[in-house]
Fold this protein.
Amino acid sequence: GTRIVYDRSRLMQLRNSPLAR
Amino acid sequence: TFRPAPKPGEGEHPLQYNYALWFSRRSQSNKTVRYDQNLKFIASFASVEQFWNIYSYIVRPGDMTGHVDYHLFKEGIRPMWEDDANKHGGKWVIRLKKGLASRCWENLILAMLGEQFMVGEEICGAVISIRFQDDILSLWNRSNDQAIISRIRDTLQRVLNLPPNTIMDYKSHTDSLKDTS
């Protein structure tokens, strides 16, 4: 099946999303 | 006590696996306390946003003192050799000079959460151990398949960008059990 993959830059980008606060 | 991860919220980005974060501190007063009784559950999470939310509240490993460990393991795997997922496998052990723990821990867990190791179900969890001398970073996997162990090492070297003279060793948990040092 497909795997949910995030590279480091994507994870860092999502760090700033309002949902992460 | 352990609490399973909440479902990812509306608009959140789910992770491939849910994870649980644990903490342990060894001191004079609890030296005789059993290892598993010394493990304190912090939180578990199922999405990128839940992870960052928890991570923002936690003291960075490099800012900790004394004999302290953070354990980040897939939900359902206890951070102990004896767990069924761990007992046939082992761990890459990386010795870190003081000052590297926080950066390397973050790089390691982001690679684990983001499925950068590409070894299927093999990864069990990661541990950062703050000690008096060097700190110790480790990544635990299920089997002792040499091809998988080498592939994990290659990804570790890529994602951690360690200083050239950094010591990396692979230790199977059965060796750890025999090790009386």
Summary: Chain A has one helix and no strands. Residues 12 and 18 of chain A are 13 Å apart (CA to CA). Chain A has a mean pLDDT of 92. The longest helix of chain A spans residues 8-15.
